[in-house]
Amino acid sequence: MKLIVSLGGSVMGSDPTPQRFWDLRTALETLRERGDEVHVVVGGGPLKEKFVQLSRACGLNDYVGDVLGIQLTRLYARLIASVLGDAACQDVPESVEEAVQARSTGKIVVMGGTEAGHSTTAVAALFAEAIGAELLLKLTDVDGIYSSNPKTHQGAVRFEELTYDEVTRILGTPEFAAGTYDVLDAVALGVLQRSSVDTVYFDGSSSLLNILKARSLEIGTYLTSRRKREKVGEGLTALLKPLGLALSAEKLAYPPSPSGSHLLFLGHGLRLSVSFRASHTAPPTFLDESAAFRTSASAELGVVLADVFSPAALSHAKKSGIRPFTFERLEGLVAKAHQRTSPIDAQSLRQLLGKSP
Q1: Burial tier of 310 (Cβ tally within 10 Å: 0-12, 13-18, 19+)
Q2: What angle do CA 112, 117, 120 make, to 5 degrees?
Q3: Can you give the pLDDT at residue 341?
């Protein structure tokens, strides 16, 4: 998989220690050993802000501050490349075009900002789009995206999964207008949305080794295009339709609700709640949400679909009465049901879906 790691300025801190750079090296080396192609875009952090404030105090405009900030991000990039040694390209690109060319070396490309007015997150998004990356890992000092600014609202709820459309709506709410909660700027968000590059937004301030957990979708908020999630739901609807299970109009989840999609199917006197995500994993918290949906939908059976279930998620499923199924297993069960000579009724469908994988 092709990955772009976007090191937010807040992650670098005002006084970064050597351990942070060593942890970054360990994480990147591990990803490469696992077969991933990975590149890095780094921000300037608090040091950049100090330069911007100093330039303003000297009577200079923000353009000068931006240029100074870009130079600082490139210094960070050069330091990271040096720490990585032979694994990284030692020439720091000054544009996305140069970064794409540097990729031909087969080494990790490390870069900073490119031009005034573009955040390094936007640069990372453009780099990801240019090379057709599947995933952008966005490191911040917050453990995910919330319903409101978690720094000013104690009741803010963290989302497991969102579409880019949903992120846009959330950021437009009054709760974010006056805050300092840095999620994704408009340029970065637009690029990621048009290119359908998925993103994991997660906390890297405690340890840069969290990059490995984010790569496995174990932490953070997973961001995807609305179309990717819809395609999963459409495929699921087509899969269950031959069994006489129709999607309930009042529970139609297109567009889906934040954190994932929850569909209610009706047929043969059975109400079946099915929850799924566009990402291939289902974290434990999503099982809780699925159980709540099953209750609110008065469904007799609750199913969660994913390609991968962690041991923690399977344990959660058992406690909540939700049946975890991989898409592959469900397809096999449906194919088996099609071979039956007698009609599929509620009891036989319960038998088919009644056992966990």
Answers
A1: middle
A2: 25
A3: 66
Q: How many domains are contained in the chain?
A: 2
Q: What is the CATH number of the domain that holds 203?
A: 3.40.1160.10
Residues 249 and 190 in one domain: no
Domain of 208 in residue numbering reads as 2-224
User: What distance in Å separates the CA atoms of residue 324 and residue 321, rounded to the nearest whole number?
Assistant: 10
Least confidently predicted of 237-251, 268-282, 331-345? 331-345
In whole angstroms, give the CA distance from residue 31 to residue 173.
37
Query: What distance in Å separates the CA atoms of residue 328 and residue 236, rounded to the nearest whole number?
Result: 12
Query: Which amino acid type is present at position 7?
Result: L
pLDDT above 50 (res 125): yes
Task: Give Cβ neighbours of residue 293 (< 8 Å, ≥ 6 apart).
Answer: 262, 273, 275, 299, 302
**Is the domain of 268 the same as that of 317?**
yes
For residues 218 and 171, state if they share a domain: yes
Q: What is the mean pLDDT of residues 154-163?
A: 86
What integer pLDDT is reported at residue 74 of this predicted model?
Answer: 95
CATH assignment of the domain containing 239: 3.40.1350
Give the C-alpha separation, 352 to 123, whole Å.
49
> Mean of the per-residue pLDDT values for the chain?
85
| Residues 203 and 323 grouped into a single domain | no
User: What residues form DSSP beta bridges with 38?
Assistant: 3
Two tokens at 75? Answer: 């210094």
Shared-domain flag, residues 159 and 249: no
From 224, 253, 277, give the residue that closes a domain. Answer: 224
Residues 159 and 285 occupy one common structural domain: no
Task: Please tell me whether residues 171 and 111 are part of one structural domain.
Answer: yes
Q: For 86-105, what is the mean pLDDT?
A: 97
CA gap 345, 356 in Å, rounded:
20
Lowest mean pLDDT across 70-84, 134-148, 238-252, 263-277? 238-252
Most confident of 20-24, 141-145, 148-152, 161-165: 20-24
* CB of 112 closer than 8 Å to CB of 70: yes
Q: Which of 260, 191, 194 is nearest to 221 (CA)?
A: 260
d(Cα 90, Cα 102) in Å, to the nearest integer?
A: 10
Q: Are residues 58 and 162 in the same domain?
A: yes
**What's the pLDDT score for residue 346?**
65
